[in-house]
Amino acid sequence: MRREPKRGRGDTTAPGDAPQALPSVAADPAYRAALFDLFLENTPTGFALLDREFRYLVINRVLADGHGLSVADHVGRRVAEVAPRAWSTLSGVYGRVLAGETIANLRLTEQQVSELPKRRHWLASYYPMRVEREVVGVGIVAHDVTELTDAQLHLEERSRLYAMLAETNRAVSESVSPAALFATVCRIAVEVGGFALAWVGVPHEGEVDVATKYGQSAYLEELHVSLDPDHITSQGPTGRALREGEPQVINDFLAADMTLPWHRRAARFGFRASASFPIREGERVVATLGLYSEQVGYFTEELVRALSEITPILSFALDRFVNERLRAADEEMLRTHDRALRAISQGVLITASSDERRVIYASPSFLTLTGYSEDEVLGRSATFLDGPETAPEAIAEIDRAVAEERETLVELVNYRKDGTPFWNRLTITPVLDERGRASHFVGVNTDVTAAREMELQLLQSQKLEALGTLAGGVAHDFNNMLLVIRGYSGLLAQRLEEPPLREMAQRIDAAVEKAADFTRRLLTFSRGQMIHPQRLDLSEVVRDALRLLERMIGEDVVVRIDLADDLAAVEVDRSQLEQAILNLVSNAREAMPQGGRLEVRTALAHLDQDYADLHAEVTPGPHVLLQITDSGEGMDEATLARVFEPFFTTKPTGTGLGLSTVYGIVRRCGGHVRFYSSPGAGTTVKVFLPAVGGPLGASRPERAVRDSLRGTETLLVVEDVDEARDLVSGYLADLGYRVLVAGDGSEALALAAAEPDPIAALVTDVVMPRMNGRELAARLLELRPQTAVLFTSGYPSPEHDAVIAPTSRSAFLEKPYGLTEMAQVVRDLLDGTTT
């Protein structure tokens, strides 16, 4: 491998350094124990199991915290006792599940399941737990979807607002009088905008009269608003808007002093926030538009800015009505029209009604949005923003609406003057003449690119979550099969004397190891927790990893390394971080089959609020950046959109898990990863990890290999899978142990009660029907407290905190384990040498 001289403050591997193999972290029992132990403690997904009496057999901290209690407060107790509100809401669901029905994706709020004063949203699924086709309990999987729900509500609010603006534009073109226009606008505000009440007030004889209203209008009965600035009823939003000519907002109606005269009435109707917007005729304030919401703090700055765009439209309409009556001030009407359009932040185009739809007016906001000057726009066809990615269906809908002289709303890709595309929410409204025919068309252009990107990110996040759940289930079943295959292939390799036959058995074992690695990668994608988080120096980890990857990178790739030496620490599992670096470098290497350039750098980075607003998973603040750039083949947009999907690959021999594993590792520690690429231009990957303080972590000790695995103690092996039980018990018996065998927890306790000799160790699966491994161990230790415990499982579950048992002599093994490895752990437990 050739290197260019280092150009940063980082380090490079000296030529001639001996290549090293990546450490086999996955083979370390302590690593696997930590992996499964931390799953339930850190996963954002809630898990629980109920028996037929609706007692909690299993629950993790996520669901326990949702009830305001600990895990220990739940186990063994009924739902009605621990969480009465959840029982009141879900007792019917539990009964349906016990009858065999699966109830998926049930949306719940915190108030439906908990007494806690939190505003959270859950997406829960309930599954019948079957043993030999008999339903023995209820399985619960619950996801906290508060952020997604809030983002969706925000998008829905924006959509309502855009629709309200579009409807208002149409009302201006169709209304024949101020009264009709005000009535229509109030209706639109309630039916489309979602407000509880909308009304227009006009000054009359020292007070404000209700000109029109819509919604909960009974509130306005006997309502008095004075125009006298010294009177208490003139200090509310309506009176102030009329006097000051500026929007007035009260975001906590029942707490504001200026709304004191109306507190009791507003409380009865459920109003919690209000705003009043002045409506002008020329330069004079002639009315106010009052809007009411049932939510405290509803009128955000963004919402007020958007709503303030309605009143210039109404003001323009009033001027138009006056000028139509007078029929003598057309020029003034056009000037007012222009002022109103200039006040709207969306880009406005007015076109002629001819087939070419030539532009006769472009607002300053439109020119800012598109980058064109007024001279470049006027006289052109309104289609000049279309380009190669503009959908033909959207163009056809616009053509039909113009031909039929009706309003339409489309979203399409348009192009700025410099060629950059943007998503345009385009509302086209006909302006009707006295004969009812369209004389012009008004187009309102809104850049909704950011909102579209947010929607796509939400959809991608939901898809990856679903795929992760599927991947975890596949890995679970696969590991149980691999345990049996691996065990018997190991026994064959030990007992076959002929070298060719022994080599065949060893090849089976090697294939199982590859398959086990595949399932571990599936589990890495599906898990939601850190394995063994430490505070690490990212530059140091990258430097060590690149030394080990020299041979894989090859001599035909020029490597440039720029590693900062003043980085803040990051908190991440070292082995997982090394795995992510390996996957990214391997991906870059495979993109350069003829050689090329590979650049690796680290640096400090600060992600601000603007960046976080565009990427839903980002928390603004200091981060540490890992950037890897290759000069390879690059990717098109379709490939980039699927780059994190498990099983998606463009390589003929790839598994499609490399980058999905990277995604899972980075997201698990609160990080963010982005790909930048185009065909033929290479690829840049930017990984942002949150910066943390505190001392750097130290590595964990390795387990010593013992000389002898044999013993004569009595062991109790409990496993519900027949093939696995026969394999493990037979192997331990061959090593000299006296082995008691049971297929479930009840049978195991009966054997233990009848056994006169000491039981040195319990070897049990974690997840079993009727009585799980943790419960079995707890009950056995009450009878025989000196018994050591070895837990095994092929998939993380709520039982894995059982490695922290009432005795320090306990351990955990991940399936598929090797028989020798299992015997080593048993021997260590018996001798008190576990680490």
Please outline what is shown here.
This protein is α+β, with helices and mostly antiparallel strands and 835 residues long.
Topology, element by element:
Elements: E1 2-3, H1 29-42, E2 45-51, E3 56-59, H2 61-66, H3 79-82, H4 84-98, E4 103-109, H5 110-113, E5 121-131, E6 134-144, H6 146-174, H7 178-191, E7 197-204, E8 207-215, H8 237-244, E9 248-250, H9 263-269, E10 273-281, E11 284-293, H10 301-307, H11 310-326, H12 330-342, E12 347-352, E13 359-362, H13 364-370, H14 374-377, H15 392-404, E14 408-415, E15 421-432, E16 438-447, H16 449-495, H17 499-526, E17 533-536, H18 538-548, H19 550-553, E18 557-562, E19 569-573, H20 574-590, E20 596-607, H21 609-614, E21 621-630, H22 637-641, H23 658-668, E22 672-677, E23 683-692, E24 714-718, H24 722-734, E25 738-742, H25 745-754, E26 761-765, H26 773-783, E27 788-793, E28 810-814, H27 819-831
Parallel strand pairs: 1-18, 18-20, 24-25, 24-26, 26-27, 27-28
Antiparallel strand pairs: 2-3, 2-6, 4-5, 5-6, 7-8, 7-11, 9-10, 10-11, 12-13, 12-16, 14-15, 15-16, 17-19, 19-23, 20-21, 21-23, 22-23
Count all strands and give the number: 28
Low-confidence stretches: 1-22, 698-707, 797-807
Report strand %: 15-25%
**How many domains?**
6
**Termini gap:** 39 Å
The percent range for helix content is 40-55%
CATH superfamily of the largest domain: GAF domain
Can you tell me the overall shape?
globular
Just give the CATH class of the largest domain: Alpha Beta
CATH architecture of the largest domain: 2-Layer Sandwich
Backbone CA Rg = 35 Å
CATH T-level fold name of the largest domain = Beta-Lactamase
